[in-house]
Amino acid sequence: MTNHGALRACCAILACLFLGPVLALAEPGIAIDDELRASADVLPVTMAGQKLFRVCDFRFGDYAIVSSKMGVTHEHETTVFREVLTHSDAAEQFTFVMKGAGPETADVKAKYSTESGPVKRYEVLPGVTVGAGDLSGAVDRLDGAVAITGNGSAPWKLHLRVKRNVAGVDEKAGVSSLSNGVRTIEIVDVVEPAAEGATPGIPARGYQFVEDGRALAALQFYGGGHPTSHEGMVVYLRSDLDADMKLVLAAAMTAILQAKDSASHR
User: Fold this and answer.
1) Where are the domains positioned within the chain?
2) Tens-digit pLDDT profile for residues 44-62
3) pTM (2 decimals)?
4) Alpha-carbon gap, residue 203 to 222, rounded angstroms
5) 208 with 32: CB under 8 angstroms?
6) Angle at the Cα of 195 (from 170 to 35), degrees rounded to 5?
7) 4: part of which helix (H) or strand (E)?
8) Phi/psi of residue 5, nearest 5 degrees
């Protein structure tokens, strides 16, 4: 090796030693629990376009949808005050079967609904009210059941409540959970921390699944950038969980991803 080649090799080694930790610390994304980050399998999510009457083809790691069905979407819109104030609501149902690394599958049945427009009512004449305030507000609801086939256990009930603006630039989850009647896993917001001195933007967002103070998994459903972008979707799943629990969490997160995709089109 020439002196020039040896110098380049030495520089490359030094860059790995000194810049590697810095790059790892600077990795963008939601601020998940440190213990979860240290013990989780990090699974980037891929998404194929939604086919007619089918759920989007979400895949991550060993987890994939093997069959699905979208129900009919019901929509209703009410316009008042010379079309200035519009209130709308929509609901859709969907089902899918998800498979992981083992032979087990998870059956998911869910309903996503959203209500947008004026969320406050004011009486302008006796018996006559109009909406006002929070004109771009929306409330999303996801309710579902996740059942592992063949193990005889009770299904897990999924409840997610989110208030957002219609453009999706800002949102906040309310009381949300995944429970089988014995165990309850809270679903809480997590966002990307703002870098010191950085220009304010839309941070990455997601949810963390926490049971008795212990983070079991996390879903980054939005990686930053354009509000309707599907780039940067990532699943964090503790490697020490049993196969059934991993599959339950993976299926619940997939249901949330489907709801988020529906919300992005409204």
Assistant:
1) 1-29, 31-264
2) 999 987 677 899 999 999 9
3) 0.78
4) 8
5) yes
6) 85
7) helix 3-25
8) -65, -40
